[in-house]
Fold Allantoate amidohydrolase.
Amino acid sequence: MPAVNKDRLQEKIHCFAQFGAEEHGGITRLSLSPAALAARTELTKRCHALGLFVETDDIGNIYATKTGTETLPRIAMGSHIDSVINGGNYDGTLGVLTALEVVETLVRENISTRHPVTVMVWTNEEGARFAPAMMASGVLTGKFSKDAMLAVQDEDGVSFGQALLAGDCLGKTDNRLNPQDYLAYLELHVEQGPVLANENLTIGVVRGVVGMCNYTVTAHGQANHAGTTPMQERKDALYAASQCVCTLYERLGRIDPDLVFTFGHIACRPNIHTIIPDEVRFSLDARHQEPAILQEVVKIVRALPAQTANCAISVEEAWSRKSTLFDPKLVALVKKNADALGFPNRHLYSGAGHDAQYVQDILPSAMIFVPSEGGLSHCAKENTSIDDCICGADVLLHTLLDLDAEDTSIRDRYLSVGE
C-alpha cells in the first residue's frame, strides 16, 4: 500500500516555517509580501524538480501539474501559504505541503495516474493584507468581481493588482480552475478548533462549512463633558451598546448549543477619556450549519429595542454566507480511507471559511482535517504533530487514488454552474 514519507514531509514543514518566521515562533507571511513571494519561489523550485508543469492565473493562483496517462480532467489538491499577522506554521501551508508530498510520492514510487494531478496554491486566502478573505477563490467562482478585487488596497495604499505585478505573479486568464478541465478538488487543513484533539481523533471528515451572519449594531448617543454631566442626563452610547451586547449574549445563548457567536470588533467615538461617547459600533458574528438557526439569530438581532439607555439603536447586516455542504461522494471516499487506514475519525463541520467552500460551487470538493493541538490556530503556538500530518497526507493520497479510478460523471452536474 503506498504511503507518504514522514522525513520528507517534516523537512517541507521546517523549510516553509522559515519564510516570515517570527522571533518567538509562528510566522507573519502576508499575501504577496517578500516572505510570501519567497515561499512561492521555493514551492515552484520544488515542483520543477519533480517534473511538474507550473502555471499562474490572472489573480496569482499557482497550478503545478503532474501529467496523467490519459487525456482526462485534472484532480486538484491544495490550500494557501499566506498567513495572518503572528500566525501559525500549519494553517493553509500544511494543505499545500501535503499535496506536494502526495505528488512527490507518486513521482518517487513511479505510481501513474490516469488523470493529471495538480497542486494548487490560492492567493490571499487570509485577507489579512487585502480584504476580503478567500479573495482569489471568490473571483474564480463568481463571488467577487475581479476588477474590484484588483483595486483593493492594503494599509500602505498598494493595490492587490499592483502587488501581483510587482511580485511577477500575474499569469494568464485561461489558466483558471475551469470546471470542464478539472474532476474534483481536495483540501487538507488543520482543524483550527479543539474537537479532534479533545476526542483523541486523528482525522476530521468534513461535511461542510457552516453558514454565518454578520451584523453591525450602533448606539447613537450625545457627546458631553465627562465631569460636568449628571448621570441621569447622559446619553452614553457605550453604556447602551454594552446593554445590547449583554441582551444578545443571553438570548443567543439559549438558541442551540452548536451556535457560536462573537462580538469581535468595537469602535467607540470619540474614544477620549474625558468625553461621554456619542457613538459606539460593535460587530456580531454568528455561525451555524442550519439556516433555521441563523434565522433565529437574525430575528433576535432585529428585535433589539430602537432605544436603550436614552440612546437610539440601529442594526445593519454587514454580510452573510450560506452553509456549504461538500460533495457527498467525496466525503464518503475520505471517510472510507480514514477507516481503511485505521485512523480514528469523525464527521464534523468547519466553523472557519476555506477556499474549498467556494470551489464546491463549481467542482465536487471535500476537506480533510487533522488535529490542532489545544485547539489553537492563528497564533504562534499553533501545532499539529508530524504523525497526525502523515495520517492526513495518507488519507489525501488514497482519496486521490480512488478519485483517479472515477469517470467524469462525478463532476458532470457542476459543469452548467461553472460555465
About this structure: Residues 238 and 280 are 6 Å apart (CA to CA).
